[in-house]
Each structure stands twice: as C-alpha cells, then as structure tokens.
Amino acid sequence: MDTATHFTPILEQVLEEVRPLTLHGKVASYIPELSHIDRSKLGMALYLPDGGIYTAGDAHERFSIQSISKVFTLVMAYRTLGNALWERVGREPSGNPFNSLVQLETDKGVPRNPFINAGALVVTDILCSQYVNPHLAILEFIRQVSGVPDINFNTRVARSEAQHGFRNAAMANFIKSFGNLKAPVDNVLQAYFHQCSIEMSCAELVRAAQLLVHYGTAPGVSEALLTPSEVRRVASIMLTCGTYDAAGDFAFRIGLPAKSGVGGGILAVVPGRMALCVWSPALDVHGNSLAGAKALELFAGRTGFSIF
Ligand code: GLN
C-alpha cells in the first residue's frame, strides 16, 4: 500500500470518530469576532519529510491561527538573538492558563516560557526592535516558510482583539514596568494582535512547519533558519509548554510536541518525522481544541507517531 492510500483513510476515520466531540466545549468568545465560527468545522493535515501532504475534512479552509503564530515568532526571535533570548524569556512550563499574570511579579517580568501570552509578548517585542513593521515581517516570514504568498491577517479579528485585549495590555504594561519590553507597549500589542489574527489552513500550517520537520531548512529559503539543535529546543518547548496547563496531559495522551491556538487549531511536529495539524473550533477549559486533541491522540495511537 502506498503512503497516500495508507494515511488518508486513517485521517478520515479519526475525524469521523471525533466528530461527536465537536458538539462539546466552547468556541472562544473573549475575542468577539472569533465567536461566530461554525463549531462543526473539522479538518486535519499531515506532512511527511518526503514532501507528501495528506488531508481530510476541512483541511483546506483557513482559520485564525492565534497562538500557533507563537511558534513562528519564536523561530524568528531565536534566529535574531540566539541563546541571549533565554535572558528575556524562560523555558519552564507555567502550570497556569495561557493568559495568566500571576507569576510575572515573582519572576520579575521574565515570563516562564515563550508560549504563554506574557512570553509571546516579549518575543514579539524582540521583533519590534528588529523590524520597522514587525507585523509585516512576521507575515512575510510565514508566507516564505509555507511557500503560500497569499496568507494574510484578518484585520477584523486583530481589531476585535485590540478592543477587548485588556488582559494582554495589562500584561504588556506589567512586563514593561520590569524593563523587559523595549518597544512602546502599543507597538508590541498591535504586532501581537496582528500575528494572532493570521489565517491559515491545516494544509498550510503543516507546510509552514516543514522548517521544523527539516531541522531548520525550508524549501525556497536559501539559508538555514535554525540549527538542528535549535529546532530540537523549539520542539521541546512545544512539548512542555505548547498547550499551557494541559501540557502534561498532552504529553501523556498524545506524545507529540504541539502548539495550540484559541482559534481551535493544534499544530504538532516531530523533527525528522512529520508535521500534523488539526482544526476544530470548540475548546476545552484550558483553551485547547477539544475534538482536535482527541484526533491527535487517536492518530498518534494508530500510526505510532510519538516521540516516546
Ligand atoms: N490572541 C489570543 C490571546 O492573546 C491568543 C491566545 C491563544 O491562542 N491561546 O489571548
């Protein structure tokens, strides 16, 4: 049996099995523009190192990538600062919700990791120091690594989040008070809300994740974006921090480095082996896609794709 006929039916079957779960959980409503999404959407895409992409369900429909963007901004900032990055942001799971402020005071404005909102704001601040238009640089980077030139922001989502982003604004101001944001708070927030509003499909996200699958190289990008050891480190932070206070449960059930977003997407990557993305908008209490997590669990169990 060739690979395509082998993987496509597994993806389709997994989606059918998890479909009843799309009725449970909650579509994110704290960003009002996201609350209109049809909760029955369900898609999945797989990328293998030989370049093969296998898809099922709504894998070609774009959605709000939200916090999945934090993987790409981390790669960009890591490229810029190298190991000096870790003086600005930690790499320890927070055990707290993605939008929590509680540890920032004891940690003196150095967020626990780059995937909680506080850490992502510091990462975006690093890009604000490097680029005149950081939000455009982030978009351009994602277009380049995915090879899809028409990926774009959803400006309504970015505006909606800016209008209701009181917590992110509080966090950015708090970090600034410790001196760990260099750019004006408003610039950092604008860039951050824009990166979160980027829309991509599962198929496009696994393409963009090629750079991790191929240990730092992407087709059409001439130089290596990260070293293989930096890629392993990004993947390790995805495993330990990518799904917030559910990261332990994800490692236990799924065994894949993964990054979720409140748009309902989850991107999982194993360097050298594969990238897998699922989208189902309704979320569990931790802000991770409910049916999406189950789909990853079933797929990993059936194919043996796991880092363990
Ligand atoms: N834009 C969202 C926020 O900052 C991203 C959160 C997420 O996807 N977990 O709240």
UniProtKB/TrEMBL annotation:
Family designation: Belongs to the glutaminase family.
Binding of substrate, residues: S67, N117, E161, N168, Y192, Y244, V262
Keyword list, A-Z: Acetylation, Hydrolase
Signal peptide as annotated in the record: none
Pfam families: Glutaminase (PF04960)
Protein's recorded name: Glutaminase
Assembly description: Homotetramer.
Entry-linked InterPro entries: Beta-lactam/transpept-like, Glutaminase
EC number: 3.5.1.2
SUPFAM superfamilies: beta-lactamase/transpeptidase-like
Annotated catalysed reactions: L-glutamine + H2O = L-glutamate + NH4(+)
Gene3D superfamilies associated with the record: DD-peptidase/beta-lactamase superfamily
Enzyme class: hydrolase
Provenance organism: Herbaspirillum chlorophenolicum
PANTHER family (alphabetical): GLUTAMINASE (PTHR12544:SF29)
GO MF annotations, alphabetized: glutaminase activity
